[in-house]
């Protein structure tokens, strides 16, 4: 069970990291100030 919880935690971390990295794309930087999510890729 602890291994499964660790894997779920890492999956959530990877999703958050992927979303956060989208704000470093120059075209999406204005969205960060307006608190809007980036468009889906």
| Total beta-strand segments | 0
Shape: elongated
Distance between the termini: 34 Å
Structural class: mainly alpha
Residue stretches low in confidence (pLDDT < 50, at least 5 long) are none
Q: C-alpha Rg, in Å?
A: 14 Å
Overall tally of domains:
1
Mean pLDDT equals: 84
**How big a fraction of the residues is strand?**
under 5%
Question: Helix count, per DSSP?
Answer: 2
User: Fraction of residues in helices?
Assistant: 55-70%
Order of helices and strands: HH
| Biggest sheet layout | none
Tell me what the structure shows.
It comes from Thermomonospora cellulosilytica. This protein has 41 residues and is mainly alpha-helical. It has one domain. Helices cover 61% and strands 0% of the residues. It is built from two helices and no strands. It has helices at 2-21, 29-33. The longest helix is centred in the first third of the chain and has 20 residues, at 2-21. It is elongated, with a radius of gyration of 14 Å. The N and C termini lie far apart (34 Å).
Essential attributes:
41 residues; mainly alpha; 2 helices; 0% strand
Q: What does the secondary structure layout of this molecule look like, with pairings?
A:
Blueprint: H1 2-21, H2 29-33
In short:
This protein is mainly alpha-helical and 41 residues long. The protein is 61% helix and 0% strand. It has one domain (2-34).
């Amino acid at each position: 069970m602890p291994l499964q919880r660790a894997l779920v935690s890492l999956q959530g971390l990877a999703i958050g990291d992927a979303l956060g990295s989208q704000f470093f794309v120059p075209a999406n930087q204005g969205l960060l100030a307006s608190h809007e999510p980036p468009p889906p890729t």
